[in-house]
Predict the 3D structure of the following.
Amino acid sequence: MSQTRTSPPQAHERARSTARNVLVVVALVWIVQLVALVAALSGVAQADIAIHFRITDIAWFTLMTLLTGTFFLPFAVKAAALFGKKRVLLVATGLGFVGDLVAAFATDYRTLLIGRGIAGVYAATAPIAYAITRDVFPRRWVGLASGLLADGVGLVAFGGPFLAGWLLDGYGFRGVLWFTAISTAASFVLVAAFVPESPVREAGGRMAWIGGLLLGGGITAIVYAVGEGSQWGWGSAEFAAYIAGALITLAAFVLVERRVADPLFPPSMTRRRPVWTVLLATSVAAGSLSAVGVVMQMLVLMPKIPPTAPNTPGGAGC
């Protein structure tokens, strides 16, 4: 009598669990790498945008996302701990998509900057994606998932310029903007379909509004001062005032966080080597991805930008 062998139920369950984990990893890797990829693509596309809109203050094309991203990041991270990481991921990704659409349809530079500012909220998805890996994966998957999220930056650094060149040559800077919008929409679908909600919540916590305003405001002031530094003069009183005000605000943030019952995050965490080294490495990598494209394109193409009327971020388009 012939017999057929079937896999034990545990084997089928393990296979389904592995498939689910792989899909979650793919969704989270897409989120994190899209933040880095958009930074690289934006840097390469800046020169073409400057020429099209006849603008010399093109640095604001990138700085607008940094302004809104750094301001809203503390609130997004705290909200994720209070209300759920997946929920905040979807909100940030949805706002990012709206901003990308505004930028892609923009017919003048001011509208383009508004879209980029709204899209900057998407930057909050990267730290939340790292955090959610600790909550939704089995212990044996946490290291693998975290490593894939981090290692993908190398692929972005290598492939980003080639992708940007193909998009610019074939579709112009609009191709870069539409690629960003479509990629953000795909990110929203992946999160909604595959990423489970984190079971970890901050019980009884409250939104740290004062701490968030101090941290976000201080960092935003630094970004704004750097963006206007070339126009004000690096030794000007305006630049010095913004930097001094930002440092005072950040110092006030540290003092406030040490005294409130529900801090934005414990300042003592930044003294731990695993924390500050990851923050430093991530900052250097992100800055490098943005800087390489910007420097290369500006050196080659900036001299071709025609002179314009008033040198303001909202100058008129062609």
